[in-house]
């Protein structure tokens, strides 16, 4: 029996299972699906690749069914009519964003068909996913896409469960919170199913069985997502207002150029990035070419963004923030930078 057949058999059993046995079936199902998405062996037949070199300050993956307006959105944002897999556009803040069109994600990727493995592998490298939907039939499209993305191990707008798991020669189970969505017996049985008899497990939040399995599998990706509803000119104002109030949502009309600038601003916000301006001694800050980094980045990240030789030879930096302190301060390489900081780096 092949892996796909095993998956179908388990899915049929899930409907009849008790809560305890359901946990075991979910663990088996997750393991088989992970095997389907593993890279094909080098000795196997060559497939159609979908590897795209990462470029720019961040990577955004665009996912949606045909005829939702993806091509129109791509041409509007990137000012190009080409049909490449990867595009690049610049935000109002000066960040260079790589935009990937992932057409194959809905073509049986979770069943390992077609270019499923390559497309999923590329999608997991994205810093943000845009799920593009037709506002006139959005609910069914959204449901199907969420099911497919969840099946391939992509968790949208979720945080990694606060669970510490380590293999040991001996081990134990510790939970610092009361578990209301699963129990110790289910967790121990799932561990046994993965032949993990000696390990330390510390659970620090009230997780579900599915979330514990995600931790065990270890290949899940937790990626922020924006739901982009296109063609809002074809629905009522009441429907537009309802959609616009939904979390992680932007409503647009590519045809009428409605809300596209706001979409770009939301992409920047969801990426969670900061702009850092560099300044040479005696010069004015370079405000036209900022270094774009993740929130929480340090002076060391700024050094690497300028040139990889700066960090090993770092002496000190002068940092100035117009938001918090207008005066330059001497800071170390571990100093955390804020949005729109001005930084001068001095080397040995």
UniProtKB/TrEMBL annotation:
PROSITE patterns from the UniProt entry: G_OBG, GTP1_OBG
Name of this protein: Developmentally regulated GTP-binding protein
GO biological process: positive regulation of cellular response to amino acid starvation
Keywords for this protein: GTP-binding, Nucleotide-binding
Domain OBG-type G: 58-272
Matching Gene3D superfamilies: 3.10.20.30, 6.10.140.1070
Single GO molecular function: GTP binding
Pfam family, one: MMR_HSR1_Xtn
InterPro entries: Beta-grasp_dom_sf, DRG, G_OBG, GTP-bd, GTP-binding_2, GTP1-OBG_CS, P-loop_NTPase, Small_GTP-bd
Organism: Armillaria tabescens (Ringless honey mushroom)
């Amino acid at each position: 029996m092949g892996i796909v057949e095993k998956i179908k058999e388990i899915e049929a059993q899930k409907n009849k299972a008790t809560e305890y046995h359901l946990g075991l079936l979910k663990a088996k199902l997750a393991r088989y699906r992970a095997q389907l998405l593993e890279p094909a062996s080098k000795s196997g037949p060559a497939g159609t690749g979908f590897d795209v070199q990462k470029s720019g300050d961040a990577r955004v993956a665009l996912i949606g069914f045909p005829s939702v307006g993806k091509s129109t959105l791509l041409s509007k944002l990137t000012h190009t009519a080409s049909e490449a897999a990867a595009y690049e556009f610049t935000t109002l803040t000066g960040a260079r964003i790589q935009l990937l069109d992932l057409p194959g994600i809905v073509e049986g990727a979770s069943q390992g068909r077609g270019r499923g493995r390559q497309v999923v592998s590329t999608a997991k490298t994205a810093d943000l996913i845009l799920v593009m939907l037709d506002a006139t039939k959005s609910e069914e499209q959204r449901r199907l896409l969420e099911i497919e993305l969840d099946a391939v191990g992509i968790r949208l707008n979720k945080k990694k469960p606060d669970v510490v798991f380590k293999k040991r020669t001996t081990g134990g189970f510790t939970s610092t919170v009361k578990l209301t969505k699963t129990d110790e017996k289910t967790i121990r049985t799932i561990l046994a199913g993965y032949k993990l008899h000696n390990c330390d497990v510390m659970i620090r939040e009230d997780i579900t069985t599915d979330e514990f399995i995600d931790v065990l599998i270890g290949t899940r990706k937790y990626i922020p997502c924006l739901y982009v509803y296109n063609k809002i000119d074809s629905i009522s104002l009441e429907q537009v207002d309802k959609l616009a109030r939904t979390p992680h949502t932007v409503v647009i009309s590519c045809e009428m150029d409605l809300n596209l600038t706001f979409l770009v601003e939301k992409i920047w916000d969801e990426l969670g990035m900061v702009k850092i301006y560099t300044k040479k001694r005696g010069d004015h800050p370079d405000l036209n070419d900022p270094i774009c980094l993740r929130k929480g980045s340090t002076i060391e990240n700024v050094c690497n963004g300028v040139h990889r030789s700066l960090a090993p030879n770092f002496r000190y930096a002068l940092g100035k923030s117009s938001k918090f302190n207008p005066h330059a301060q001497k800071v170390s390489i571990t100093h955390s930078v804020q949005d729109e900081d001005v930084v001068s780096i001095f080397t040995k």
